[in-house]
Design the sequence.
């Protein structure tokens, strides 16, 4: 099979498809009469190049070529996949398919990005209707894996080809065998959109309040488990039937203006409970709770690093927790003749392996955070860094002494071994209680963030650092300082 | 203010509240006539202890006490916050509030976990109606920040107290000033639930297919931006009005059985566009796209580490990419007299700081992954580790030579310095092209995963390791090997 894809219509969706194919090594041939198409696709490509290739821990194949073509015939001639993303008008789509089928191979997949039309509608009047199927992606197409593949009356062999190709692109073909207007996901989006319009119109909530109601609550849950698995967990050990027995009646309440609901028969309850068992029955509810929580912590801490959404809330809480405590103290508040507490924190779930042990690289993360905190203490804080100076780590030596688990509170105490001019040599010790877990020895240089070259820090920082260096010089030399791997053996 | 909370009703929701308060240093007094209440709360507490305290980078205050009480009066007497989570029956709630108000302080907040009732309904017949408000949380209450705070006719001073307390617990009080059945979030959940019941009943999709349609697509988006901000970005630079002009008419299509929709007037479009500007106007669409993508990559790679949802899809793709390539090769396939390629990957967005530079701790993550890959090459793979043996890192030395950005492809080449008995001494070099970025020197010991003590590896592993050790001994000594911090200065 040639790895050539034709993209008919190069907007946000078509451009996203182009990026998905090209970054997975396919040559992409684009047809779009829009004079701005090149610019639009190149903008999508820039976003995609920065985000998609890092998803896997293995580099993607060499990027395929992207070319623009003046006719549909030229774009599709040698393509194995042809993706139609033209406007949502059935007459426009029919005309496009006719042009495509005049020029393309009979063995090529023709996928439509339509969010609304059924395959049977798209296929009307086509020369080879069995070649056309719905392949409905989600924005950003280069990142989100879902593709609704609706294949009424499509050639079974071609459907298998389509599934293989989508999977090879890192996508998830959700194969719907029965067609319906708007497929599945957009029906939910429509339902939520309509409810949201009422809430705004009736003055119950603003767009921002609605978005927060989603992203601080069920939105995070739905990033990892959907509706039914989430409710299965909520139902507890008693299971899905129990949940529905509780929740079912609420369907009759006048909670919404959207009231045509299916009757809650025993048959429907059994159908759902049976499907839920097939879906999630391999895990106990207790296991699912722990999986859910590990997922939520991982995503929330990820968003914390991005300072966004639920993660921004955590950062705000943390700033309040630091204010007025040892966690927010500056050099002048701290004695210079004792190690400085630079961390007192709980090992989070996303720092651990499946056994609950803290993983190797998180030791350096904890030490790097402790270094950041020490920098803040001596005045190299966010405002100073924004002014153009900072410390960069040149060298690190970590000794792993003992293991630690998620949920343990760890403390890091830090000593200045050398603090002079551009140079800062730190010694971190990580404890759980009085159990030594690891030591971290770090050599840093103060740099200009413009030139990325070493330069002296501000006088205030140099002074604060020198004060600790002098004070700590009186302490006993730490065991393991200046050690080299292999030297002691 | 006393930091004492009373929890009336100790199921999954009440237990979640108890955990949220106790882990934030509040003493918690629980009333629940259920004989299983202690067990149920202790199970929720176990989940919460493992997940909540690690969200922040600062340890939470010392855990408060949890006590169980035989009467509501005893539980609420000295509480500053009283949370009602009894069954969703208005008569039961009214009786509960009467008992609470007989015994509690007039200055305490009485919050109800109700998902459906309006404050005006809860307050009916109360001695002090102004003390009662809706504080509707989301499961798991100890992790998700959202609380819908609906305060019709509540005392304004008490509402401020309630917001302060919820915020101090790391929660987000979404303050709704106008009451409505089911508040906001559950109206969306209801709409989706009803649509989902139709899809299952009509045989369009199973519960698993529906869950996948959510979590592989819009669910991940909604974990970080809600409905309106997502659509604002989709609308592109033309903005929210443009999006609605495109999407609006679709509301008239027969896409759902839930058809009572608000009329799409200019007034409604202006209202929404204006609110959206107020909400998201501080960022350009281009910025929002990049924020969205960084959030998505972060969450998807987080789920990859958990091997769940969209992250499990990435792992499946990666396994296929490795099979039959250098990325999946074993010792016997590789020459012993040259460094071994142990990584060839793209720096992901979640490895970088806000400037796009790879952060310190991710160098160790890359080296640790390279070590894992080398272990796999010599036969210390998942199956071997499951049988009870593995290598643990005892010591690490990293030198940072040059910077690297998100999107760069990095390669790690690995040499065995010593491979003998329990000992493995590795030397990693990380490159972008031929630019040396960092070196990582690692000393590992083979251990029994039962005893956590050093023991020799299998004969096959020892042999494979010795072969590389011998072959690599003929290569020039790497610059920087066996270096100690400070020694060279």
Sequence:
């Amino acid at each position: 099979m040639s790895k050539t894809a034709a993209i008919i219509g190069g907007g946000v969706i078509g451009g996203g498809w182009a990026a998905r194919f090209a970054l997975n090594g396919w040559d992409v041939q684009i047809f779009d009469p829009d004079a701005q198409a090149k610019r639009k696709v190149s903008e999508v490509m820039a976003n995609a190049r920065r985000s998609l290739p890092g998803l896997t821990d293995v580099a993607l194949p060499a990027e395929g070529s992207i070319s623009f073509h003046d006719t549909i015939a030229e774009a599709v001639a040698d393509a194995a996949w042809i993706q139609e993303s033209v406007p949502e008008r059935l007459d426009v789509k029919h005309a496009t398919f006719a042009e495509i089928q005049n020029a393309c191979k009979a063995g090529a997949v023709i996928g439509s990005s339509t969010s609304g039309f059924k395959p049977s509608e798209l296929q009307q009047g086509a020369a080879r209707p069995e070649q056309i199927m719905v392949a409905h992606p989600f924005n950003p197409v280069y990142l989100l894996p879902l593709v609704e593949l609706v294949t009424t009356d499509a050639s079974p062999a071609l459907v298998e080809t389509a599934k293989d190709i989508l999977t090879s692109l890192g996508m998830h073909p959700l194969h719907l065998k029965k067609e319906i207007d708007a497929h599945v996901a957009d029906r939910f989006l429509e339902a939520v959109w309509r409810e949201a319009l009422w809430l705004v119109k009736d003055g119950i909530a603003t767009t921002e309040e609605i978005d927060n109601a989603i992203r601080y609550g069920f939105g995070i849950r739905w990033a990892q488990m959907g509706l039914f698995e989430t409710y299965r967990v909520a139902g507890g050990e008693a299971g899905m039937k129990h949940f529905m027995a509780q929740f079912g009646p609420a369907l009759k309440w006048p909670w919404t203006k959207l009231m045509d609901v299916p009757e809650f028969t025993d048959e429907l309850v059994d159908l759902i409970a049976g499907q839920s068992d097939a879906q999630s029955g391999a895990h106990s509810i207790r296991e699912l709770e722990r999986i859910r929580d590990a997922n939520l912590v991982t995503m929330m801490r990820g968003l914390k690093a991005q300072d966004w959404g639920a993660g921004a809330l955590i950062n705000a809480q943390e700033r309040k927790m630091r204010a007025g405590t040892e966690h927010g103290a500056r050099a002048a508040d701290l004695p210079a003749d004792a190690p400085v507490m630079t961390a007192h924190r709980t090992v989070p779930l996303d720092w651990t392996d499946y056994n609950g042990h803290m993983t190797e690289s998180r030791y350096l993360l904890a030490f790097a955070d402790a270094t950041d905190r020490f920098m803040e203490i001596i005045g190299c804080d966010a405002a100073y860094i924004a002014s153009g100076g900072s410390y960069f780590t040149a060298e690190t030596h970590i000794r792993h002494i003992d293991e630690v688990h998620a949920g343990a509170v760890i403390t890091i105490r830090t000593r200045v071994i050398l603090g002079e001019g551009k140079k800062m040599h730190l010694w971190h010790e990580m404890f759980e209680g009085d159990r030594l877990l690891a030591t971290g020895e770090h050599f840093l240089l103060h740099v200009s963030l413009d030139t990325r070259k070493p330069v002296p820090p501000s006088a205030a920082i140099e002074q604060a650092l020198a004060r600790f260096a002098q004070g700590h010089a009186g302490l006993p030399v730490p065991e393991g300082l200046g050690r080299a791997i292999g030297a002691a053996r």
